[in-house]
């Protein structure tokens, strides 16, 4: 009975994660009908509906979400414990799931991970690129990677890159048509390209600091997007001013394609950090990934020097 329950619970997590019976069945190596039957039996035993099924997708119900919050970390803990038992007799192995922002993935994470994967063939990494904030416990990730300011205080945070300064940039053609902003409030007279972060409620205010004074400015313009590369392209094409990390704009500033403004108001931010819950067991495979990504100034290139 207990074996059936554990199998059904693992199947429920797989379907919720895949948002599809078909994809989950393929991952589990079973049929869609058998998987659907197993979930229906689980719902019957529990007396609650766990999944809402439509012709296009599958999503957890309120009861399903509540179960996932307990179930995902519990199953992850079991997987990690089994992996650690294997690692005692074999080379470190297992799958490490990481959610990361795309800029960090391209400039910091993948250049390191490709060396890890070559040197440790028994370690696998699932790298999900998502610019919004993610609940790594509920979603079953081993770790997340975001700028340090966005990491929850109850997480263990490991720096994987240097501090990041923000910059405000625009094309020479755009700035030739209007007065250059001198203080952050001048941005009200400018078109600005906003970055959308739905998990933070939309487009956050632009934050500035100078001589201990902090200023937040709400900006507006024709374009807002969650894709940083589109923000860069729009700034180059003259659609307005953009707030970027210095490393995202450095090469374009050096070549004169973009021009910096408000330089004395642009602060430095804590760099990218890898973070994970205090309660998470660090398996040998996970430790290898953490140690490889850990920021050591002596071995890092300056921000923006990478071609990635």
Automatic annotation (TrEMBL):
One BP annotation, GO: DNA-templated transcription
Query: Which residues does UniProt call coiled coil?
Result: none
Q: Which UniProt keywords apply?
A: DNA-binding, Transcription, Transcription regulation
- Residues in domain HTH lysR-type? 4-61
Origin superkingdom: Bacteria
A Pfam family (short name) is LysR_substrate
Please give the InterPro entries that the UniProt record associates with this protein: LysR-type_TF_proteobact-type (IPR058163), LysR_HTH_N (IPR000847), LysR_subst-bd (IPR005119), WH-like_DNA-bd_sf (IPR036388), WH_DNA-bd_sf (IPR036390)
Query: Gene3D superfamilies of this UniProt entry?
Result: 3.40.190.290, Winged helix-like DNA-binding domain superfamily/Winged helix DNA-binding domain
Q: Any idea which GO molecular function terms this record carries?
A: DNA-binding transcription factor activity; sequence-specific DNA binding
Which protein family is it in? Belongs to the LysR transcriptional regulatory family.
Q: What is this protein called?
A: LysR family transcriptional regulator
Species, as recorded: Halotalea alkalilenta
